[in-house]
Amino acid sequence: MGNLLKVLTCTDLEQGPNFFLDFENAQPTESEKEIYNQVNVVLKDAEGILEDLQSYRGAGHEIREAIQHPADEKLQEKAWGAVVPLVGKLKKFYEFSQRLEAALRGLLGALTSTPYSPTQHLEREQALAKQFAEILHFTLRFDELKMTNPAIQNDFSYYRRTLSRMRINNVPAEGENEVNNELANRMSLFYAEATPMLKTLSDATTKFVSEAVALCCYSSSCCRRDLSKEYRSRFTNEETVSFCLRVMVGVIILYDHVHPVGAFAKTSKIDMKGCIKVLKDQPPNSVEGLLNALRYTTKHLNDETTSKQIKSMLQ
Question: What positions does the domain CYRIA/CYRIB Rac1 binding occupy (predicted)?
């Protein structure tokens, strides 16, 4: 219990990590390979999921036409025909979130196992640490795209309403077998969240709360330090800077959701002022989305325990 409390309160973070977390060149060691390969099977599909989500246009026109002309069977069929394949995509996104949750649990299990501390794990198992960062990077990108696409919830709501009406009228419904009622309920809860992928990861992380808190502390510290002038010169690809910025914000948001008092309190071991300053030192157009993520998707920013200075920095 003593060790658990120590990790939960991050009491071993006073000095911060003093190693370079190499996001560009980290390769799995023999001891990492089993977990690394399991997680990699999931992560290799992440970019395709983002591309499909980015190209998701919805069936708004067909749905509006069907609603405005309820007696026109052709328009009803056209709207249903447009929505069913889109719901298939939404199902794929949801199922990926479940795979990602399982992968994160395995990863956290490896990165928080005894006898090593979280900082020792990050230093020793940098390939796994990079995968943890890649999951957070994906999560922020997915939720950004979802938040700016109202068609997703509109399409799914129309699908459920129409399916319910078809059942009442005993009309066979194409697509019902693909998304049964139980799955539809779970998908509905998922897409009702403003940041559904973050919610999924938060739920998974809650099972590792104490260890994950420490892991987030170290990760944010590593990212912030990697972005300093001294370490930044080690990166060969400018995209790595964007990756680090997104991961830094991702771990802050995750920490804020799973820690009892959050990331913004004075007792937090995350240097919020330093992290916000790093973001504000970047070209404004490149980080406005990340600043908005801190403003609108964190849990404790508006708490009384958050200092006025931090609130002012994020205004």
Answer: 18-311
CA 45 to chain centroid, in Å, comes to 15
The count of residues in the chain is 315
**Which pLDDT does position 12 carry in this prediction?**
44
Are 111 and 215 in contact, with CB atoms under 8 Å apart?
yes
Question: What span, in angstroms and rounded, lies between the C-alpha atoms of 209 and 188?
Answer: 26
CB 143 within 8 Å of CB 196: yes
Confidence of residue 263 (pLDDT cuts 50, 70, 90): confident
Q: Judge whether residue 3 has pLDDT over 60.
A: no
**pTM greater than 0.90 (yes/no):** no
pLDDT at 195: 92
Identify the residue with better confidence: 38 or 18: 38
- 10 Å CB burial of residue 294 (0-12, 13-18, 19+) is buried
Higher pLDDT among residues 14 and 195, named by residue:
195
